[in-house]
Amino acid sequence: MKSYAAVDLGASSGRVMVGRVGPDSLELTEAHRFPNRPVRVPEGLRWDILSLYGGVLDGLRGAGQVDSVGIDSWAVDYGLLDADGALLGNPVHYRDSRTEGVAEKVWASVPAEQLYAATGLQYAPFNTLYQLVAARETDQLAHAGRLLLIPDLMSYWLTGEQGTELTNASTTQLIDPRTREWSHEVASRLGVDLGLFAPLRQPGDPAGVLRPEVLEETGLRGPVPVTAVGSHDTASAVAAVPADGERFAYICTGTWSLAGLELDAPVLSEESRAANFTNELGLDGTVRYLRNIMGLWLLQECARAWGEPELGELLLEAANMPALRSVVDAGDAAFLAPGRMPERIAEACRVSGQPVPESPAEITRCILDSLALAHRRAVEDAQRLAGHPVDVVHVVGGGTRNALLCQLTADACGLPVVAGPTEAAALGNVLVQARTHGLVGDLPSGRRLLTRTQPLTHYEPRGDTARWREAQARLAGR
After folding, report:
1. Is the pTM for the entire model greater than 0.90?
2. Which pLDDT belongs to residue 461?
3. 328 CA to centre of own chain
4. CB of 367 within 8 A of CB of 302?
5. Nearest Cα residue to 420 out of 447, 455, 370, 387
6. 335-340: long-range contacts (C-beta < 8 A, 24 or more apart)?
7. Confidence band for 390, pLDDT divided at 50, 70 and 90
8. Nearest to residue 281, comparing CAs of 136, 121, 404, 456?
């Protein structure tokens, strides 16, 4: 067996997991978990990137001797380095307000239809492209010699080598999903200097070895290679979907819900753009055709406002609340910013003429029903737009711990749900590292290994989907 450290940085917490892989075994243990708390400073919302890096070093120290390290994180955000490789400032958080109104400026130069046809990316106000246009006149960007996406920045600090991993680069809205290369035309028309980006790397490519200073601080014996993985955490999570065959949908659940299909080619139709589906790149030439949904962020923010109540009790109470009494659009950008989430959800119900949820249990049930309804819409729309029918929905990530959400998703979709693995991003990260050592074969063989070794929970749909169709029509104002 060989051991691999998977650094998995999420939007609310980071973790270093150790995967031990043999010819027919895969064991995952947690070496270290640490919070990821953004900080609001006078200039806006920022990531505490040095605290995150410190958590990574602590995790590698706790991991013990490993054969390789891989890093994945959330998408779109980046750090800027000067000509000497020094960080110019804390990376801006994607929930910062600086991109408000920027999309209209971009579309004045490259209309939204053309931008989608060239890059296949859904509209999201925080896409890297919009962030770069928002930063165009700043001193920091003017003095930047290099831009590194978050996992590439961590890799650079560990190894001293720079690169841009492809699956995460595909979230910048600067990659052509057909060629899997930079879209020079889009960049040129919007004044984006692609020279800021380090050369592209593929999952599985070498990304350097740990620097002597890192070895000393972590107690590891060198050389320890760093391997490029699917560095967008969703790419790693989709790689860890324990699916058999191609007729499956997936929902990667956590702070966000990413719901969609794995395809061989992008879907770049105008209908797909209007439905706000994105074409991000996955492992082995695949395309992650999916829709972004707010996810458990809604519940996380409410829990924060309520003083962090015991979640298990809250979910039990929510399960006893009337079903589908009130629902909100879980993809609405109105819920993107932090703060006052219970009041904002109640107001959305009031404006749409539905009963207003008041207690934490009522609001929680509203959130979970709304997420399940959004999952249903995404799975239905993806099948229709891609001409790709499915027989099962795989739910992976932190949301698999929420049995009520998984059951409601099965009910809403009218399809069986297979929930697990929970640490999907870390497992996908480990699988790519194991492939470089010949311990795992292609993507299907890795998924078969997951099915044999990871705990999975099955949910069958209850009743018909008529009440979900009615709720969907109610939300659409029909």
Report:
1. yes
2. 98
3. 22
4. yes
5. 455
6. 335/294, 335/297, 335/298, 336/95, 336/125, 336/126, 336/294, 337/95, 337/97, 338/95, 338/301, 339/301, 340/305
7. very high
8. 121
Find the DSSP H helices in 339-359: 341-351
* 253 contacts 395 by C-beta, under 8 angstroms: yes
Question: If you average pLDDT over residues 164-187, what whole number do you get?
Answer: 98
How many angstroms separate the CA atoms of 212 and 224, rounded? 10
Catalogue the active-site residues.
233
Question: How far is C-alpha 446 from the chain's CA centre?
Answer: 20
Task: Answer yes or no: are the C-beta atoms of 150 and 91 closer than 8 Å.
Answer: yes
Tell me the residue type at 379: V
CA 271/CA 247 separation, integer angstroms = 22
166 secondary structure, DSSP code: H
Residue 304 has which token pair?
């924060």
Amino acid at 207: A
Q: What is the pLDDT of residues 226-262, one digit of tens each?
A: 999 999 999 999 999 999 999 999 999 998 999 999 9
> Which amino acid would we find at residue 223?
P
Q: Which pLDDT belongs to residue 478? A: 61
Q: Listing from the earlier edge strand, what are the strands of the sheet with 206-209?
A: 25-35, 13-22, 2-9, 68-73, 225-227, 206-209
pLDDT tens digits for range 284-342: 999 999 999 999 999 999 999 999 999 999 999 999 999 999 999 998 989 988 999 99
For residue 32, give the H/E element and its range: strand 25-35
Alpha-carbon span 52 to 21, nearest angstrom: 27
Provide the token pair at 399.
Answer: 């949301």
For residue 100, how far is the Cα from the chain centroid? Answer: 21
